Amino acid sequence: MSTHKPTAPARTYAAYSAPLWRRVLLTRETAVIALTAAVILYSIVNVPNFDGPLTLKFLLQDIAPILLIALPMTLVIITGEIDLSVASIMGLSSVLLGVLHENGMSVPAAALLALLAGLACGALNGFLIAYVGLPSLAVTIGTLALFRGIAVGLLGTKAVTDFTEKWSDVATGTIGDSRIPLVIIPFAVLAVAFVVLLHFSTFGRGVYDIGLNDEAAHFTGVDVARTKFILFVLSGVVSAFAGIYFTLRFGSARGDNATGYELQVIAAVLLGGVSIFGGRGRLHGVLAGVVLIGVISSALRLESVTVNVTNIIVGCLLVASVILPSVLASTSSRLPRKAATPPESRPTQNAASAGV
């Protein structure tokens, strides 16, 4: 009667991965959320009037355009691309809204045409990047100047300010008696849609695959060109919507509206844990990054700190968000690692049948 030593069960991929609590808590997204909470608590305790009744309202109104544009920008950067033209699309949609309304068109009709213009701008970016094969950095730098030039050319140096009070109240109003602005409602709808699209759909898995290796993603069945084209179209439409909100909130359509917003959006996305090299990132970390930048800006403004200092701090955060992941990865690769013990080998079928 043959006997042999029982073999150990084969280890699966999950057996080699870190525990669930470690994969959830020890992440860049969790660190950004914790840092944001710490900055909010510090500001409440140490910054005068930060806990005032209007602070939340103005804070959310200030960061609403960045929150909106950060949603499609996250997906764009995960694919390894970038869109620097979002602020100029905001300015162009603002000018179109003002010019069309000044010539007798209703605000809803003018806003619809402004959204279509944003769609066209995004489609132009997407076509040149996805189908022509040009680098996104060069394309969007060029279209940044193009769209901004068109906006300034249409309106010149003047501003359109004859918006009715009804539409201004829509942009600056709150939900009931709360301090939460009405713009948070469309943002919440878009946030849910983008979370489902990125994290719970095959389209979202394709976005991550493209960021990791677009050539490999193509051979696994992902339509790389179509995916990138759709993302840039979404970026253009959402940027135009943010430009419409920006115009109605301040009651002024100008060609230089939202200048420099693209850097704040990119800084928030990278600070929220999205890799500039693509293939990594989650939306909850990005939203925390936007709130963090907004809280810092609001607290510094209440402390009478100039905008230039705020921009310096945001720039430092942007540089740190790009450098730190590379430094941490380099440090961890140099640390000594415990050699893994190979799993016990199974006896061959011949040896098992012969018996020991």
UniProtKB/TrEMBL annotation:
<feature type="region of interest" description="Disordered">
    <location>
        <begin position="335"/>
        <end position="356"/>
    </location>
</feature>
<keyword id="KW-1003">Cell membrane</keyword>
<feature type="transmembrane region" description="Helical">
    <location>
        <begin position="180"/>
        <end position="200"/>
    </location>
</feature>
<feature type="transmembrane region" description="Helical">
    <location>
        <begin position="309"/>
        <end position="328"/>
    </location>
</feature>
<dbReference type="InterPro" id="IPR001851">
    <property type="entry name" value="ABC_transp_permease"/>
</dbReference>
<keyword id="KW-0997">Cell inner membrane</keyword>
<protein>
    <recommendedName>
        <fullName>Autoinducer 2 import system permease protein LsrD</fullName>
    </recommendedName>
</protein>
<feature type="transmembrane region" description="Helical">
    <location>
        <begin position="112"/>
        <end position="131"/>
    </location>
</feature>
<keyword id="KW-0813">Transport</keyword>
<feature type="transmembrane region" description="Helical">
    <location>
        <begin position="229"/>
        <end position="248"/>
    </location>
</feature>
<feature type="compositionally biased region" description="Polar residues">
    <location>
        <begin position="346"/>
        <end position="356"/>
    </location>
</feature>
<feature type="transmembrane region" description="Helical">
    <location>
        <begin position="59"/>
        <end position="78"/>
    </location>
</feature>
<dbReference type="Pfam" id="PF02653">
    <property type="entry name" value="BPD_transp_2"/>
</dbReference>
<keyword id="KW-1133">Transmembrane helix</keyword>
<keyword id="KW-0812">Transmembrane</keyword>
<feature type="transmembrane region" description="Helical">
    <location>
        <begin position="137"/>
        <end position="160"/>
    </location>
</feature>
<feature type="transmembrane region" description="Helical">
    <location>
        <begin position="260"/>
        <end position="277"/>
    </location>
</feature>
<feature type="transmembrane region" description="Helical">
    <location>
        <begin position="30"/>
        <end position="47"/>
    </location>
</feature>
<keyword id="KW-0472">Membrane</keyword>
<feature type="transmembrane region" description="Helical">
    <location>
        <begin position="283"/>
        <end position="302"/>
    </location>
</feature>
